[in-house]
Amino acid sequence: MRMRTNLKQCVWIATMALGIGVTGSAARVAASPSPQEQHDQDYSKNKNYQLGMRDGRNDNAHKRDHSKKRNFKKDDDKRDYETGYQAGHEGNQQDHR
Questions:
Q1: Is the pTM of this model over 0.70?
Q2: From CA 58, how far away is CA 62, in angstroms rounded?
Q3: What does the DSSP 8-state code read for residue 34?
Q4: Mean of the pLDDT values across residues 7-32?
Q5: What angle do CA 49, 50, 53 make, to 5 degrees?
Q6: % of the chain residues with pLDDT over 90
Q7: Which of 36, 84, 85, 91 is at 20 to 30 A from 56, Cα to Cα?
Q8: What is the pLDDT of the chain when averaged over all its residues?
Q9: Neighbours of 85 (CB within 10 A)
């Protein structure tokens, strides 16, 4: 009888662990945006992107690479600036929308 109780308890624990694992991974997948969604931002009014675009075009015109070092408080602001800089330095004229 004791062996049967242990078996039930083990099956119950394994089922709960598996359920929690599936639920946790499904929540993590739903929360993270796809790479395509990350690139579909509208940068037309983003001041950090526009600043990066301006600096990138200027550096490209003068054959320089990152002549200005900018410091940002937020990682998102730095990412937006770098995206704009790369677009401007590579000569992309569109507003990356």
A1: no
A2: 6
A3: P
A4: 75
A5: 85
A6: 27
A7: 36
A8: 79
A9: 25
| Domain positions in the chain | 1-32, 34-97
Amino acid at 1: M
Rounded mean pLDDT of 32-36? 56
Residue 16 CA to residue 26 CA, distance in Å, equals 15
pLDDT tens-digit map of 53-82: 999 999 988 888 777 788 899 999 999 999
For 91, the token pair is 């000569």
- Contacts of residue 36, defined as CB under 8 A and 6 or more positions apart, other chains included, come to none
Longest CA–CA separation in the chain, Å:
84
| Under 8 Å between Cβ of 41 and 76 | no
In the numeric block, which tokens belong to residue 54? Answer: 């301006």
